[in-house]
Design goal:
Blueprint (H helix, E strand, L loop, with lengths): L1 E8 L1 H5 L3 H10 L4 E8 L3 H7 L7 E2 L2 E2 H9 L4 E9 L1 H9 L12 H5 L10 E3 L3 H12 L5
Amino acid sequence: MKEETFVLIKPDSVKKDVWFKIIQTYLYEGGFVVRRARILRLDKKTAKKFYKEHRGRLYKGWPYFKKVVRHAVSGYSIALLLYGENAIERVREINGATNPAEAKRGTIRRKFGDPDHIERNSVHASDSRENVEREKALIFGKVSP
């Protein structure tokens, strides 16, 4: 089934200038169509809304929510609305495990993420249709089909 998904290429990937390789090699060649794209710098209020499901989550004893929000506002990101076959599931597989140290070879996070800093894992992808709609609205505003 063809569907939309939302991807955010995080500031670490933009700063390292690997964002184009991620789009070209992993997403475009993976069969996805970019329906919408935006370069942006998240403000703290929007970043907190965007990552709200991580509130209270710990990683190695540290509050992950604070780390991921701090990273999200540290520089420019690239938001993508993608369309393709089983897009939500397939993009999450292409991204790899949240922790780059645990991601499989050949995934974006394994290749470009920082295994010592989980919040610098290169990319975010929506995990459900509900989150696609929430994240899409938060970043792009009301988007018509």
